[in-house]
């Protein structure tokens, strides 16, 4: 998708965009409402970024890609921040090493918040003055980028807090999970033959969802709901982590090297898990979460099934509304449901390698580094999670993780070969 196509996809009036800008920026800050200053700085593993870093990086994105090229009179809050808060845009300049983000006690939290306000003021003045479609498109991209970091902010601080032996709650007053009658798992035949997948041109999309194209689906059936923690516990109790024939070679090596024998945040007794609300009794009816691709794949083999391809997932999910347990629901944890739960709760591993769609062209310039350069060695996940903003996902949305990733809300839906 080039900039002009994005203009069509993301066209917004100035007033709408201003209001949207304020809303998304404020939503980020709201997620930090229960944190203390010390919490903003910790980095518990290389994949995790400190809360403070997220707050600054999404701000840097607007400064670098909107203000610098479009506002001649813009004065930087502090030009040195570019080096600290550029993430991976090598064509935009050098950057601080990702695993060392937790060493940055300065700028302090108040200075980062002041940096946000500085950039917000300049952005709102720009929006007030009116922006051409190509600039509006980059702003919309920046807002979607900030929503992605809202989710990372929560999953990262969850990991940080999980490392504290006191097992504190990030949010002590989360909405209690609902009790639902989880229906029996069934499999229904999905559309096969040539099917169109990818962004349909209706609203914003990332470049990796384009171009829309035909893909061949074999006869298949897709699971009616997500796999629950109770079902995953049966797999564990049946010796699932000890049977090499259930595992991909890389998966078997990984679980043995790292001593994995259960989902990431589960207690050894398989009866509790760490959540953003602190350590809780395991809800056996809720969708299992924080499993790697390897574990999802081994579970599927144990269950006599397989993971869906991303095309199978997309054609099934688009038949339902993109509604579900998103961050605004206030659970911040996957919850038991009585529906298909394609959207929200947990990102669903697919068996598809994250790659370019036929004819894919990354965005021009540095923003071409946003998605395209990661199209190797990762797996596509679909549907958003309980930490995703409700208006952020859609059926064509593609996220991606390395197969050993577990710190995101990552879960399992099954599929089977053959129709009927
Ligand atoms: Fe980013």
Structure, explained:
- With about 425 residues, the chain is an alpha+beta fold.
- A four-stranded mixed sheet has the order 9-8-7-10.
- A hairpin with a 2-residue loop joins strand 5 and strand 6.
- Helix 2 packs antiparallel against helix 5 and helix 2 packs parallel to helix 6.
- The two termini are about 40 Å apart.
- Bound molecules: fe (ii) ion.
- Fe (ii) ion (FE2) binds next to helix 6.
User: How much is the radius of gyration in Å?
Assistant: 21 Å
Oligomeric organization of the protein chains: single chain
Separation of the first and last Cα atoms: 38 Å
Low-confidence stretches: 1-12
Strand content: 5-15%
Give a quick account of the main beta sheet: strands, pairing sense, barrel closure. 4 strands, mixed
Q: Structural class, from helix and strand content?
A: alpha+beta
Secondary-structure element pattern, one letter each: HHHHHHEEEEHHEEHHEEEEE
Number of helices: 10
Bound molecules: fe (ii) ion
Give the tags.
420 residues; alpha+beta; four-stranded mixed sheet; 10 helices; 11 strands; binds fe (ii) ion
Short description:
The protein is an alpha+beta fold and 420 residues long. It has helices at residues 3-10, 14-30, 51-70, 81-85, 109-129, 133-162, 229-237, 249-258, 293-302, 310-317; strands spanning 187-189, 193-197, 213-217, 220-223, 272-275, 278-281, 347-353, 379-382, 399-401, 410-411, 415-417. The strands form four sheets. The protein has a four-stranded mixed β-sheet.
């Amino acid at each position: 998708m080039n900039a002009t196509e994005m203009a069509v996809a993301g066209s917004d009036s100035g007033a709408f965009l201003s209001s949207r800008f304020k809303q998304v920026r404020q939503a980020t800050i709201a997620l930090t409402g229960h944190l203390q200053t010390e919490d903003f700085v910790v980095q518990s593993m290389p994949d995790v970024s400190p809360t403070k870093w997220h707050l600054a990086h999404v701000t840097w994105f607007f400064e670098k890609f909107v203000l610098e090229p479009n506002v001649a009179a813009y004065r930087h809050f502090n030009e040195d921040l570019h080096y600290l808060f550029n993430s991976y845009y090598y064509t935009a300049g050098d950057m601080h090493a990702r695993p060392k983000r937790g060493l940055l006690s300065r700028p302090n939290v108040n200075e980062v918040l002041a940096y946000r306000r500085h950039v917000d003021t300049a952005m709102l003045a720009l929006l007030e003055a009116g922006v051409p479609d190509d600039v509006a498109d980059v702003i919309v991209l920046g807002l979607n980028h900030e929503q992605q970091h809202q989710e990372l902010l929560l999953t990262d601080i969850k990991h940080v807090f999980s490392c504290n032996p006191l097992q504190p709650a990030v949010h002590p007053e989360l909405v209690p999970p609902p009790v639902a009658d989880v229906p029996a798992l069934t499999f229904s035949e999905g559309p096969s033959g040539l099917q169109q997948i990818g962004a349909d041109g209706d609203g914003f999309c990332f470049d990796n969802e384009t171009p829309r194209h035909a893909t061949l689906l074999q006869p298949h059936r897709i699971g009616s709901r997500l796999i629950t923690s109770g079902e995953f516990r049966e797999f564990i109790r049946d010796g699932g982590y000890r049977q090499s024939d259930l595992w991909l070679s890389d998966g078997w090596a990984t679980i043995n090297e790292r001593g994995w024998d259960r989902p990431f945040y589960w207690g050894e007794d398989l009866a509790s898990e760490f959540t953003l609300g602190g350590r809780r009794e395991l809800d056996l009816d809720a969708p299992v979460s924080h499993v790697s691709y390897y574990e999802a794949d081994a579970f599927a083999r144990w269950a006599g099934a397989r993971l869906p391809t991303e095309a199978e997932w997309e054609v099934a999910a688009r038949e339902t509304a993109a509604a579900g347990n998103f961050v605004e629901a206030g659970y911040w944890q996957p919850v038991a449901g009585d529906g298909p739960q394609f959207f929200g709760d947990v990102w669903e591993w697919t068996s598809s390698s994250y790659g370019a769609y036929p004819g894919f062209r990354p965005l021009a310039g540095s923003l071409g580094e946003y998605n395209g350069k990661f199209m190797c060695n990762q797996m596509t996940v679909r549907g958003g999670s309980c930490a995703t903003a409700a208006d952020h996902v859609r059926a064509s949305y593609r996220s991606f993780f390395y197969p050993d990733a577990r710190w995101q809300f990552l879960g399992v839906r099954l599929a089977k070969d053959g129709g009927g």
